[in-house]
Task: inverse folding
């Protein structure tokens, strides 16, 4: 790869990492789009690099968010249990169900989630009472409003079920779980936006790692391109953690809504054969 | 930070720093280090599940320990099968 391409990867990595860490998405799907649409990198290599990018974003963003108390580790473990189960089921379902169907379905679901995010009220509904067993309540210091926010996730069963579905769908479609987990955490389980972004960012690294090994073992990981990807994503993820603390929840939701719309469009284009990965 | 958060923080930070150091050394000085850097990065999220599980069992939070053990075992089995 020529130096200009490596610099372009580094710069886009910073942008993608910042957005990914801020919104809890990991940034992988943006990197895939960049690698394929802008750099013409073969699909398997693009996916391998983007998985490494998601892990890098999750490690850096995750460490900052865990230190600041934003990440709810117990909630992430609860949901990961169902998401990994779903991912395994997804691998089996992928053999029966056409990918085209799943991609269009996920695209439509993301458009709906984006619509809800964009229309959501300025103030968040936060539940502070524990409803049921094994509800991992959390608290964090809201640096913008300078107050401690306490919350208890609601509708845990629905959250588990959607995580199960989300794990399966992300496995079939070949994207990370962030775009699914963020709406689940914030819209369904009423986890405040900042804590949801931190927890989702923390979770996506685990699922990405499982797939990354496979791509790595099959020789799809272009190691020289991995260096600017990881450096850019890590720098961007660090910046994203700073921006998260300084951005109002309503603006985070709007930004997430816009990104989800973009991802939905990519998925529908992929399903229709306009792009491929 | 309590023990669980501190342990997970150290694991993630150490993994990221070591991986990036190895990748940079590999890129500029000694190419085989690129491979090591990528592997360290990929192992880091799995290690943090392991560390979280150990901290949770030390805190006698058995339900969450079982979840961590389940997630880790599923991931390891999946990796082994798909490799």
Result:
């Amino acid at each position: 790869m020529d130096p200009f391409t490596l610099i372009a990867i580094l710069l886009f990595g910073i942008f993608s990492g910042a957005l990914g860490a801020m919104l809890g998405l990991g940034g992988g799907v943006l990197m895939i789009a960049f690698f394929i649409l802008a750099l013409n990198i073969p699909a398997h290599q693009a996916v391998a690099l983007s998985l490494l990018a998601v892990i890098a974003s999750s490690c850096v963003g995750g460490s900052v968010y865990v230190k600041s108390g934003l990440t709810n580790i117990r909630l992430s473990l609860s949901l990961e249990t169902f998401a990994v189960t779903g991912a395994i089921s997804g691998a089996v379902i992928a053999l029966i169900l056409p990918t085209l169907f799943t991609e269009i379905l996920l695209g439509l679901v993301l458009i709906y989630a984006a619509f809800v995010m964009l229309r959501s009220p300025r103030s968040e509904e936060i539940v502070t009472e524990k409803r049921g067993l094994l509800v991992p309540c959390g608290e964090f210091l809201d640096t913008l409003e300078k107050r401690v926010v306490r919350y208890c996730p609601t509708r845990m069963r629905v959250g588990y079920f959607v995580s199960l579905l989300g794990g399966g769908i992300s496995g079939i479609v070949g994207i990370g779980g962030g775009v699914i987990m963020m709406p689940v955490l914030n819209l369904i389980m009423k986890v405040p936006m900042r804590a949801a972004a931190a927890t989702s960012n923390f979770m996506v690294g685990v699922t990405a790692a499982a797939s990354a090994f496979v791509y790595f073992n099959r020789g799809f990981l272009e190691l020289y391109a991995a260096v600017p990807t990881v450096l850019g994503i890590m720098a961007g993820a660090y910046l994203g953690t700073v921006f998260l603390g300084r951005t109002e929840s309503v603006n985070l939701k709007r930004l997430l809504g816009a990104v989800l719309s973009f991802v939905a469009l990519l998925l529908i284009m992929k399903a229709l054969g306009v792009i491929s990965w | 930070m309590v023990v669980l958060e501190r342990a997970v923080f150290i694991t993630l930070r150490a993994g990221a720093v070591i991986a990036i150091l190895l990748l940079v050394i590999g890129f500029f000085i000694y190419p085989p280090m690129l491979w090591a850097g990528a592997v360290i990065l990929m192992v880091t999220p799995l290690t943090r599940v392991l560390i979280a599980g150990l901290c949770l069992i030390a805190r006698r939070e058995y339900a969450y320990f079982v979840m961590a053990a389940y997630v880790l075992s599923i991931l390891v089995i999946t990796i082994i099968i798909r490799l």
